[in-house]
Amino acid sequence: MSLLVKITLSAALILSIGVPFGAFAAGEKTGGRYKTALGANLFLFFGTMVIAAVLMFNGNAFAAEEAASAAGSASSAAGMGYLSAALATGLSCLGGGIAVSAAASAALGAISEDSSILGKSLIFVGLAEGVCLYGLIISFMILGKL
What we know:
Helix content: over 70%
Mean pLDDT: 78
Low-confidence stretches: none
Strand content: under 5%
Shape: flat
Structural class: mainly alpha
Number of helices: 4
């Protein structure tokens, strides 16, 4: 990719974060404020992804048959390793997010009734966040083997 394409994609990604945040910050505290920010975020994110795909995959690739057959098995094994590292991180963070949402809301409700159980509730929220860290450690271990 050329430098201009890299700069354009970087600017588009920054705008896909900044524009929805600006729409959220500028709106009133109504339901439409959240819907506008979410709609702008989805439109800009997927628009950036489509433009990036068009710009990155617009060329023709020519490969030698011997090199392609020799490197095919090694590249597929490395690709599966990268995929497994991504899945380990992504799914553990998804599970950790679900666990934190349940534990944190229950902890806030319990703390509002009895403030002496703050320490106990923080331990449970921290344990739920630990799941994400374990997935990240596993993905680093997988990437270290590639």
